[in-house]
Amino acid sequence: NKSAIFYSNKKYQLKNYIKNSWSNLPSNMIKQELQLAFEKSNLFNKITTNDTNSDFTLNTKLFEIYNKIENNNAYSILSISFEIVNNTNKKTKKYFYEKKTKLKKNTPYSFITTVNRDFSTILVNFLKELEKNSFKS
Prior knowledge:
Elements: E1 7-8, E2 16-17, H1 26-41, E3 56-70, E4 73-86, E5 92-102, H2 108-132
Antiparallel strand pairs: 1-2, 3-4, 4-5
Helix pairs in contact: 1-2
């Protein structure tokens, strides 16, 4: 059912889409999606969310995720940064991605599917950058 959606705006939290879309905060889903993407990429021998001795640490910040109305058009806005830290030599490399995509329809469902697609595109580009920069362990 693509037409029914419940939308709530909770104070001090990101906007939550409950039905037909986000079942969790976007920041939590991004964490899960990142872990899955890294496991599939084979860039690193082991991927863990536990605080262990590791060669690299990934810090992620979700800056913006919202629906913007501009000139009678609706857009999804997504900006996120990744910082990868080499724990051996303490060198860091930062990546920043920002996407503004025009929605096909100004509906919550269109917004969510567009943001999900944009995040997938960003993730593919980020993994390509890591591979290109020899972050293979």
